Amino acid sequence: MNTTDPRVGSARDNSTSPGLSRVVSGSNSSSTSNLVATLVPVLIWAALCIIIFVILRRKCPRVYAPRASLKSLEPHEKSAPLPNGWFNWFTEFYRIPSVFVLNHSSLDGYLFLRFLRVLAVICLVGIGLLWPVLLPIHATGGAGNQGLDCLTMGNVVNHNRLYAHALLSWVYFAFILYMVSRECVYYINLRQAYLLSPFYANRLSSRTVLYMNVPRHYLDEQRLRWMLGRSVKRIWIPQTTSELERLVKEREQTAMRLEKAEFELIKMANAARTKVLKRAESERKQESSHPPPEPEHRSGNGPESGSKSGTAAVIRAPDNPEGVAYPTKEMRERTLPDVNGSVASQWIPHSSRPHHRPIANYGRRVDTIKWTRNQIKKLNSQIAKVRRDQLFKTEGMLPSVFVEFETHTDAQHAYQTLTHHRPLHMAQRFLGVRPFEIIWESLSMSWLETIARKFLIKALITAMIIFWAIPSALVGTISNIDYLSEKVSFLGWVGDLPSAVKGILSGVVPALALSLLMSIVPGILRYCARLGGVPTLSMIELYTQHAYFAFQVVQVFLITTLTSAASAAVTKLLEDPTTAKDLLSQNLPKASNFYLSYFLLQSLALGSGGLVQFGNLFQLYVFQKYISSPRKMYLRWHRLQRIHWGTVFPVYTNLGVITLSYALIAPIILGFAAVGLLFLHIVYRYNLIYVYDSEVDTRGLVYPRALMHLLLGLYFSEVCMIGLFSIKGAYVPVVLTVALLVLTGLVHTSLLDALGPLLWSLPKSLTVQEDQHLLGCRPINPRNAEDLEQSEEYHSDKEEQEPEQSNSRALEGASGAFNALGGGIKNMLRKKVKREVPEANILMNALMGFWMRWISPNPADKSNFLLRWLHPEVYSDYTLLRRMVPSDLPDPVYPEEIEQDIYYPPSFFAKPPTLWIPRDPGGVSRQEVEHSAKVIPTTDEYVDIDEKGRVMIDIEENRLVFDVSRLRY
């Protein structure tokens, strides 16, 4: 075979193999049939899921609209319910503005929807810009490829046609760079407006700074106040609480055992009572249907036969060996039992009460209820004693402190100030740490242990990325199952399968297997972050996002692409290694065909599955029926599904990277990406408004990181095009693309330098102004008022009427001299033109007015879409975006008894749980509540057990007591 034939890899012999093996094997790459084999089942699945959603949305509001139905949510967390019709709800849903997610869910959720829109806009612009030019060039390239392969750069033979790719890459990638830049500007302004809003700025966490690796001699409140200044309001110095945590955990476990035993006792007593009452009722009916013969002579003192009281006030069970008297139903309803006696013993013997054999009691049998009550009483006294000792304990301090400042500005000033002179001492500091998200194990690490753990965890993750390539490579080879069946003997049976089945095996199966394989990774990464000493849950999400994106790029993009092609290319390269250059230039673009199937699976298949919520559907309406514990039923019903942004963002960022990498090499991928992203936007928009709970909020920090990750797609695309241009001998496009690569790096570096200081800190110019607004005070010093007015002039975009006044300022250095000289010449020429050529002056003013409107527009003037897009610094600045954040939300306030200890470990202030037991008609629960309430809070409200033993709970009623873990501020 002629290895220099440009048609290598094109369609031959009418082959129908659907795998990527034909990309490099010289046979027909049946990309179209492979895509159809993936598209058909995915569309069927998506249509089925949408039908299920439309039908069940009306019947299962707890699954599909919990944020509109649950009473346990705060008013500002709820969403307005949609109409209950079949299709009229979509119009109302479409009218909900995107800012609703910002005000009712989280900043992360709002920015994720915006990220999907940005990706969709990038794809749509690419379709309008690249498709009209590149698709005809590729289709008529002359390499003879067929199907989708003829629409890739690999079908182009004439290197002169590659100038179009180089020029369009400048236009398209410049648009993407500007798009990313303007989104960074928008994010910074929105984040500042959000963090300075009253609802956020008034939080205790917004005024509290966490310092880690504090030297031992600074673990003193007076010394910390001396160092941090007069603005310090409160200081928490946590201590090691291992003994206290053990006792609190043991108390919770014992309480749950008591609750379970109480439930079993009530259930047994209720069943026995129902059985006795049924038997008594049956005997009464038998006596009434067969009355005994009346005696001839009756005592005048006896009751009359028609008396309603009769002799059935107490019924003795015939098979009761102990001769216990059981009161009738009427008697039980008339008189409640005295709590001093055991009501349950009237229905069940003492031997049937719940019991167990504790190891501490040498395995001897004990009554569970009595034993657990005594244990809880003992644990309560031990916990109280340990807590008192902790107050006066001076040893065992954690090397971390929480410092609350008077205002948000004071906290920002302390956060931005270098605190200690030694390296790594108090260098790690965090602002806005909410109590429920603290990882207390991480706060106990010294600076040396933290460094060692970080290096070890990074090494572990790097090794995971390397060795995870093995299963990813196996998944990649599945896409070439038809080719492997020809080379591997025991896979010969695959060749006998129908083409449709082989298309599913090489299209759907590897994409699904890859998604399942990658779904395991985030949990491992979160555990690694905890081991590495990451102090908060939000920081764990950021850590996971960064590491998981590396996994996605290496495993999903690089490894899968290379192995899917290498599994078929090995034999050909071994036969003639000199063909590697031709194989790369012609077949690398064809590797994009696999990602068409992957995009369909990630967007349509998994997106529609997320819309149906199969997990919640079975959990709440199937598995819920087999749960007998009222506590578990209630908590499961009122717990919203959590979304972890450290897992979600990398998946779709990687989709964007793959799309940009193949945008000019295989432009057809833009269409699939655009459709998938628009569908995902609808799905996530609905779920964020009505289903998901953004419990862990990074305050939008995931968004700029995702934007920076997205630029990796530009690097990949530029490097690949440089290689392909070089192979084909197009050296001028190589130079153009190299220059574009340098420009991309410069823009990327500039964005990182510009964003860095503003990501973690707030500018003082805004914090002081907001503090004055929140405190309701105004500057009383006239000089300060003048300074404030002057600062407002600096923020104005209006030009000065007298530009000559600027020349009176002092000149500093050569740059100042040149600027002054240039300004003087400009003013002199302008005056001369005004005097001698008035018509030119009019024309110049018109031109300047036109261009200045586009270069530096006035925000007060009427704008259009293009102006708003070109100038986010004007039309999306802080003052405008501040209006998006509501100012009428309730103040986030902790209960006073909780607030004073909120930044101590939870075991320091944790209260015993409230036991929930069902109320029975026999009155057993009432007595158990009276007895158990002496040692632990107990209630039988809102939960009932009927005579058939069915537990009925008023699950909609909000009956939770104050729970620190549910606080989100």
Automatic annotation (TrEMBL):
Q: Name one GO molecular function term.
A: calcium-activated cation channel activity
Question: Which positions fall inside the CSC1/OSCA1-like N-terminal transmembrane domain?
Answer: 35-183
Superkingdom classification of source: Eukaryota
Q: Which UniProt keywords apply?
A: Membrane, Transmembrane, Transmembrane helix, Transport
Identify its membrane topology class.
Multi-pass membrane protein
The principal localisation class reads membrane
What's the protein name? DUF221 domain-containing protein
Ranked from the top, the taxonomy reads: Eukaryota, Fungi, Dikarya, Ascomycota, Pezizomycotina
